[in-house]
Design goal:
This protein has 9 helices and no strands. By secondary structure, it is mainly α.
Length: 187
């Protein structure tokens, strides 16, 4: 019988929080069970194992990122929308490095897969940003990949402590936004 108050959503939320705390690579079912005050086999009543937990954390993370970026771009266009989206994405990754790490390399199994649905929402927010630029439809995928590479790269490097020299990180990020804006306008 499942423990009162413990359900799949609570297990996934606790797993995501723990991944943020200890790092995604260090997340184990045993560590999560300890955190929740249950024995490890009890978790299998709520998730199908570590792979299932990791996938559910990835879906949660992409959904949360989509919510954050989508809300940030509301009412903005062009460079303002780009800046809002980039800042929201960066903040999400820096605040939730473990759960964001869970998203890397997760391949949706089909169009109804929750990962596909969440990913489309996040892409939709960044696609809305691109509407403020004169980008040919044939270049939208390339522009989305460029934005993801810039934002993902910067945010994951920052979250991992990868910027050790004296230049202000926020200044560098604003420089990145300006660089992306100039490039998108040049198309």
């Amino acid at each position: 019988m499942p423990r009162a108050g413990l359900d799949p959503a609570a297990v996934v939320a606790a797993g995501a929080a723990l991944a943020d705390e200890v790092g995604f690579a260090r997340l184990t079912m045993g560590l999560l069970a300890e955190r929740l005050g249950v024995r490890t086999p009890s978790l299998y009543k709520h998730v199908g194992g570590l792979d299932d937990l990791n996938r559910r954390i990835a879906v949660l993370a992409v959904s949360e990122a989509a919510d954050s970026v989508g809300a940030a771009v509301q009412g903005y266009a062009g460079r303002d929308a780009l800046a809002a989206a980039a800042r929201a994405f960066r903040a999400f990754v820096v605040e939730h490095p473990g759960r964001y790490a869970a998203t890397i390399g997760v391949v949706p199994t089909g169009p109804d897969d929750p990962m596909a649905v969440a990913s489309l929402r996040l892409l939709g927010a960044f696609t809305a940003v691109l509407r403020g630029y004169e980008i040919a439809e044939s270049d939208v995928d390339h522009a989305l990949r460029m934005l993801r590479s810039l934002c993902h790269g910067f945010a994951t490097l920052q979250a991992g402590g990868g910027f050790q020299w004296s230049a202000d990180i926020d200044e560098s990020f604003e420089w990145l936004i300006a660089f992306a804006d100039r490039g998108l306008r040049a198309l």
